[in-house]
TrEMBL record:
Keywords: Membrane, Transmembrane, Transmembrane helix. The keyword Iron-sulfur does not apply. This is Transglutaminase domain-containing protein. The lineage of its organism: Bacteria, Bacillati, Actinomycetota, Actinomycetes, Propionibacteriales. The chain crosses the membrane at residues 35-53, 60-80, 124-141, 148-166, 172-189, 215-237, 604-631. Residues 478-549 form the Transglutaminase-like domain. It holds the Pfam family Transglut_core.
Amino acid sequence: MRREGTFSLSRVAGAWLLLLPGVVAFQPVFGGTPGYLPALAGITAGALVPLLAARFRWSAALWFFAILVFYLLLGGPLALPETTINGFVPSLTTLARLMQLTYQGWYDILTVATPAGDLSGPQAAPLLGGILFSAALVGIVRFTRAVVWPMLLPTLWLALGIAFGIRQAPTALWLGAALGAGLLLWSAAHRISRMGAANAEFLVRQPRGLSRRTWQGLSAMLVIALASGTALGVNVVTGNDVHRQVLRDQVAPPLKLQEYPSPLTKYRLYELNQKNDVLFQVAGMPAGGRLRLAVMDEWNGVVFNVSQNIGEYLRVGRELPWQPEVATQVSEITAQAYDDVWVPSFGEPSRIEFEGEQATRQARGLYFNRNTKQTLTTARIGDGSMLRITGVVILPFGESQREGLKGARGGAAPLARVDRVPEVLVKNATDWTQGATSAYEQLSMIEQKLRTEGFYSDGSDNRSRAGHTAERLAYMFNQEQWVGDDEQYAASMALMATQLGIPTRVVMGFYPASDADVGSGWQVRGTEAHVWVEAFLEGAGWVNFDPTPDRNRVPNSENPQPKPKPKPRVDPPPTPPEHVEDETVVADQQEVDFDDPKDQPPDWVQVAIVIAASAGGVLLLLSPLIVIAILKGRRAARRRKKGEVADQVAGAWDEVVDRARDLGFVAVTNHTRRESADDLQEGYPDLPIRSMADQVDSSVFGPEEPETEVRDSVWKQGGELKSSLLATKPWYARPAVFFSLKSLRRVGVETERRSRKPQASDRSGRNEDSTGEPKK
């Protein structure tokens, strides 16, 4: 039986008010007045569940279903309004997504940028949390007289709001003071109420007004409140906003590479727009080193990009997951005009330390590509960010080193993933490397061809467009003069080398002019940005190639026209359009698909993922019911298989009694089976309850051990009787009976069958029960 406390609206209202500080703690995550709604709606809906349960005498299963219904009804308009019908009616999409958000929402709320009021999904977390905490708190208040236990839940609720909140907490002091005052008032009010009730019960002469002890308690409360308010005021006036440690500081945002544009798309920005801006300040630069920013080994016909395979990236700490076998060098880099996610280094870093205001977030969002030794941080590097990088320096190969590579073949490294290579580049790769006997010679011939016959332009003279799309490169090499900058020449050489089966990649970074003095420190400017090619050769590893012409090799200007003789002015005919022989050229106006369909998973995979995620959410919500069903199933199996056959026969009756208990029947521990059957028969006169009890008694206490056929027959009869008992309820109330917890509670001492297990020699004594009443 469930012990109910005397209903007090003031107790319920007080419990609800104690949850308000937790509601306010969630607000900064979403911002504005709407930021209060998810948690506030949650604690309000949760408070209604136990009140309705007390009014209509719901079972535990109906409690659970009510919580689920409130969550699904409120979750649509509050968390997923765009998926609802008319803004509030949940659709199938709404329900499926809300199931996922029962667990995913808690992770989403930690990884979204705040305020997240305009985003869909994270609001489900405080909504669900509010419903659960409020239902538990008001349930305790409604059905018990407890005072201390209800004080624990509001504290945990506020702690949850703080943990899933943000670091800046301007209301933190006020929330703590408000909850403390509320708990103090809660405790004092109950103490005063109980003292008054005791006086009313035991004193003959009732005191008028408040007692002396009551006044003492109120005075103590007033003193504590004044002291707390004074201390709080001092902190608010003299202190700054509270900055606390929260869970989002411990959780790195998910790595979504598609959100970061290719580093190479910023080359023209550095080269032209920021050519005089200081991007980095470097101390400890290795002699002859190059500051590497990004390594790119994928080309989709539009851009060269870093690997988009998320499996190649590892979330790392300061120590990277590899140990250098050669000497390392430490460099310190301070960002100024640079703002991006890519972490610069002079080679292959083995340790990275961040300093500055965002150091913690940058370190927690650090990812490392184990194939290219590329690092990035989801927190970005901006003005004021400082890095201390320890790693192996990669120096460019000098002329003497390259002399020893003339016979080198391509090494065992994966080819760059490229697609839609212009035909003119495929043809050039074959024509320009005729007679080469090794991969190194092929690369050198392509490099030399581009350096000596190409022309350089940074676009300031309108002779060179930015970009390295298939159209841009095809147009460039179908002209009499090849005009471009590092971006086009490096991309072209990498594509041609890949067509020859040589592993190559494109690297963007910075290095100073050969005559620059960087001994005391290097101020990295945009004009020092460069792009080069690296090829993997046997016995040498990654070897650098610089196919870009010297910057002073500018394209020839148009030949001057001879001065015309004085004639009547005649407008010249329009210049015919140039003929582009390459059939793979794509017009500028034509959209180029950025996503390769080959890289996308099949539709059935995406459908399977959605179904699996939805099923996972459903199973999570239904897990309490699943546990109840498993416990009852195991109990029935144990009764049918454990012990002697007589015990198994008696187990069939126990199953019937437990079904009746789930329906509301109160089992008495010291009643015999016949007495229990009589009580049940009164409630269900049309069912063969007494006849089954008699059959079980005759089998259990008979002179012979019952046969297995008798056991099977009794269990079949018991199953039919359980179904008949369940059928006495309307269809909508049957799930509450099936998942009721009443039969799982211990009644006390079990039936007489459990306390007496006679041997075969005692069969003759089974003609009477433990009370001495003869059996029929």
